[in-house]
């Protein structure tokens, strides 16, 4: 189910939150209605953690993560790092990395299996991404934009990319990611997909300006209409327990 | 905001500074600003006079002028995201239906102006590109208060003094049909030369609208209300609401938008926090004064 939400009159939900299959991070300082929307959708299933990164609220654009791990920029403070390590589930590896491009959320787009990265990312960072997040890494651009983390959002079921992406690019990306992709907009025509929305395998949160058409496109490409969160999370829990044995 | 300006500047010659030409020194409308201007020994034309950070010797001697043409356009629905960005802080951080408000402004195509870069002469753009690249720099419009209900509630909440609160209430409720909400917002470093023509255009459009049969009733304004931001000295004991800054100067009030100082001088004002009500008959005087202020040295 896709839900419309607003952070302090701002429709850029993907800037102030980060949603994965194992946890959800939200920025501090927003109104209670913002948290309550997340908590009502997610509280039973995954932890919703309030945090800041580097003292800022733009956490969605600074960090990158999936169910296996979370990558934080070098500007993250020690207290924030500790807070995240304590609050997130044990199976999630929280790692602070030293990368010149510190807005990791703008440079890396990932789901649980594949990641697309900014073409100028360091080699060591690429290896760390593959290690911590457990994904295969591809350096790509989207519609000529190097900030792949901003202009596309994808989950394990589907993805939404910048509206000006050509058909050939769409096919190529779809083959790399192994999920269906569609070129579209969010928040009434905004091209910056990942800042306007945040998504995981069973739910999505979009800015309140998102039109009904955009919302229906999102629900169909991410297959949210008949998603059952409990099944997905139970499968993950089983695999996590296996790893202890 | 800064990103938006940089995008525009890429269409012009590349320059070290991100700014538009200020052909005259920025006129100080408060005595604080005037003292700052006159205390500078560097020529006021150099953009470095307006930045407080230390500047290299070399850069100070080069004056980078970027030529920009601004156009005034009627509001249209494609301007939604730009106008929303400009009005983002209109009512502080209070959650309200900003999108609805912006829609209301954009529907009123006959009355209101959006300021954008006028790029049509340079490159043959299609209309699709214009909406993406030419985001609005400023917007001005006048809305009939009866059409929009949430704003009066906010203003009354922000009021702390009882007497002016009552006066404001009469304007906002009983006489709402005659009151126009003047919405004027622009990016912080927009050149001031744009402002008098902008207000002229608005008041002209209002008077033309009153001649038009259909819209006549909603545009016969007797009063205008404006909401704006000021900086008020902490040492002065006036009850201002949550919107004051903390600058401590000899002048008690610094105006973010210089025309607000003119509005305050108009006789029939009630200044409450940051809402001012002015009489519509003063409009012609206001226009004259705006023009005078720009030409005075």
Automatic annotation (TrEMBL), chain A:
Q: Where in the cell is it found?
A: Cytoplasm; Nucleus, Nucleolus
List the keywords (alphabetical).
Cytoplasm, Initiation factor, Nucleus, Protein biosynthesis, Ribosome biogenesis
What's one GO MF term for it? ribosomal large subunit binding
SUPFAM superfamilies, alphabetically? Pentein
Q: Which InterPro entries match?
A: eIF6
Task: Report the domain of life of the source organism.
Answer: Eukaryota
Q: Does the keyword section mention Disulfide bond?
A: no
Biological process according to GO: cytosolic ribosome assembly; ribosomal large subunit biogenesis
Give the family per the record. Answer: Belongs to the eIF-6 family.
Q: What is this protein's function per UniProt?
A: Binds to the 60S ribosomal subunit and prevents its association with the 40S ribosomal subunit to form the 80S initiation complex in the cytoplasm. May also be involved in ribosome biogenesis.
Q: How does it assemble?
A: Monomer. Associates with the 60S ribosomal subunit.
Protein name as it appears in the record: Eukaryotic translation initiation factor 6
According to its UniProt entry, this protein's organism is: Zingiber officinale (Ginger)
TrEMBL record, chain B:
Q: Name one Pfam family in it.
A: BCCIP
Q: Which GO terms describe its cellular component?
A: nucleus
Superkingdom of the source species = Eukaryota
Matching PANTHER family: BRCA2 AND CDKN1A INTERACTING PROTEIN, BRCA2 AND CDKN1A-INTERACTING PROTEIN
Similarity comment: Belongs to the BCP1 family.
Protein name in UniProt: Protein BCCIP homolog
